[in-house]
Amino acid sequence: MNSILRTSALFFAALFSLSVLAQDEKKEAKEGYQFETIVDLPTTSVKDQNRSGTCWSFSGVSFLESEMMRMGKDPVNFSEMFIVRHCYADKAGKYVRLHGHLNFGPGGAFHDVLYVLKNYGALPEEAYQGLEYGEDSHVHGEMDEVLKNYVDGVIENKNKRISTAWQEGFDGILNAYLGTTPETFSYEGKNYSPIEFANEVVGLNADDYIQVTSFTHHPFYEPFIIEVPDNWLWGEVYNVKLDELMEIINNSLEQGYTVGWATDVSEKGFSHRNGVAVVPEENLEVLDDTERSRWEKLSEEELQKQLYSFDGPVKEKEITQELRQMGFDNYKTTDDHGMHIVGMVKDQNGTVYYKVKNSWNTDNKYDGYLYASENFVKLKTISIMIHKDVVPKELNERIEW
Most buried of the four, 100, 155, 235, 290, by CB within 10 Å? Predict the structure, then answer.
């Protein structure tokens, strides 16, 4: 009898222990990421680029809108498609002149937004939505295909000369899809041209903004034309060391200036749905053959859960200048996406993350925002756009402006 009681007691004790363990594990799983705000800067509402390759325009104008707020202005809700339209038209001219030896498509860069602001002005969203093709939101697949086929046809035509009509025809396609840009429009009871609107209402000087990066295949502290396919304008960036790049980002945020962020989002550690971007210490590329074979037996879904859990903070890889350069050289880090850094937080372990405004609508964990770890930003940043006043004085003296 005592033996039976003892066995029963041990059984129930084991059940109780398992129950407590399960509750602890459940509690730990639910803990997730706990973020404490360090810097949180004002910004406008999250927008949706939908099915268009125009993140560079959405993130670029979000940056400009926050700049207006920083300066004490009421922010304009910029028309992203006004910028897209002008860039497509000018890109087409350059593409034809280069006999098609230029990347032609919907992609772009932050300096494209500044280029349009300086040369063509700006429009508010209410004056130019760019939706003239039967859709309620941006769906550019057909338009992108038609525009590419058009300019290729101009280049490949059998006449052995380029007509004087092709640009008007190209503009006609843009007008059909995005609409004709108005010469004047009314805003808050006053009429403006796009240039007048940029000068009198927006009030931002495009020359106040620069782009900065950190790569070793060019000298530090000198500008260079960054080698990414969407850089059709051949825009320059300033090159600094990795720790200096991070210092600029932090200095900018701490002084109240937001940061435009061109980055790579193809990594499994990036999850917009979960609102987190991290660089887990383990991945298939760095495991030895024995370890790799164990992971490769898992399904893609299981692998995602094992290596890239978004239930809470993970141990991350240490990022060096060399590792960052290797990613760029090997096409592991590519110019995928433009977003807008608007703050800094730290998690329950003290790890720093950057609060990032995306343009993929608000249907994710953080209402359209995500948190990118410091290591992710170190590894995957292509370039940043900043106000030149935020460059620390000591660094400013070394850069060849």
Answer: 235
In the chain, what's the furthest Cα-to-Cα distance?
105
Cα 341 to Cα 374: distance, rounded to the nearest angstrom: 12
| Per-residue pLDDT in tens (0 to 9) along the chain, 401 residues | 454 545 455 444 555 555 545 555 544 445 799 999 999 999 999 999 999 999 999 999 999 999 999 999 999 999 999 999 999 999 999 999 999 999 999 999 999 999 999 999 999 999 999 999 999 999 999 999 999 999 999 999 999 899 999 999 999 999 999 999 999 999 999 999 999 999 999 999 999 999 999 999 999 999 999 999 999 999 999 999 999 999 999 999 999 999 999 999 998 899 999 999 999 987 645 444 443 444 455 555 555 555 566 889 999 999 999 999 999 999 999 999 999 999 999 999 999 999 999 999 999 999 999 999 999 999 999 999 999 999 999 999 999 88
N- to C-terminal Cα separation, the chain: 90
The rounded distance, in Å, linking the Cα atoms of 390 and 383 is: 15
Q: Which residues face 225 on adjacent strands?
A: 236
Residue with tokens 């705000």: 37
Determine the Cα–Cα distance for residues 250 and 388; give it in Å rounded to an integer: 14
CA separation for the pair 353, 318 (Å, rounded): 15
Rounded CA separation 203/315 (Å): 44
Cβ 304 vs Cβ 2: under 8 Å: no
Rounded-to-integer distance, Cα 60 and Cα 79, Å: 11
Give all domains of the chain, ordered by start, each with its CATH number.
Answer: 36-279+316-396 (3.90.70.10)
| Spatial separation of the C-alpha atoms in residues 151 and 172, rounded to whole Å | 13
Q: Other CB atoms closer than 10 Å to residue 195's CB: what's the count?
A: 14
* C-alpha dihedral sign at 355, 361, 367, 370: negative
Question: Tokens 């108005």 appear where?
Answer: 182
Beta pairing class for 209-213 and 236-239 = parallel
CA 253, chain centre distance (Å): 17
Our CA angle for 59, 61, 45, nearest 5°, is 75
Tokens representing 112?
A: 């494209």
Rounded to whole angstroms, the Cα distance separating 326 from 334 reads 12
Structure tokens at 142: 């057909």
Tokens 């890889």 sit on residue: 317
Q: How many CB atoms lie within 10 A of CB 194?
A: 23
